[in-house]
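Incident review: delayed structure delivery

Summary: a single-chain prediction request sat in the queue longer than the usual turnaround. Root cause was a stuck worker, restarted by the on-call engineer. No data loss occurred. The affected request and its eventual output are reproduced below so the record is complete for anyone auditing the incident later.

Affected input:
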Amino acid sequence: MLKFQRVFVLIAISSLGIAAGCGGGGTGRTGGSSSGGSGGTTATSNVATLTVDQGPAALLATQQADEDMAFVTVTLCIPGTTTCQDIDHIQVDTGSEGLRLASGVLTKISLQTQMSGSNPVSECAQFGDLTYLWGTVATADIQIAGEVAKNVPIQIADSSTAPSSCS
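Output delivered after worker restart:
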């Protein structure tokens, strides 16, 4: 059985984490005094708020939560549209790549599965502890801190039976 509950909202944002942390000049700065000398802060583009806690409630309920993990909110959109959903508690994992979501978190949008001929494209992601995730690959526009990555393939992990080559 997949250790689906353990990694309910597991993602790895390397390319997106880099995109959110690099490039794009800001229009202001945080902290210090403004150029008018009156003090205060000015909003800065290209800066994502990190939350450090035990994770989403679903992990806490299954006692699969960990302590002191960094999370960010990501906005997923149907490619080329403004039909979007904010996904809270996406784990920031700079040692991995890609975005992986549990199928149950997509409640407001339906992303199109990538196809190879008449077959859905699926992915098996195996981790160092020999656990794995299995699920289809879909495409989304992903937004973090005002930065947008268009038509990005993401894994929608589900609890369906994975082929033996995955496990």
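Verification: The chain has two helices and nine strands.
Action items: add queue-age alerting; document worker restart procedure.
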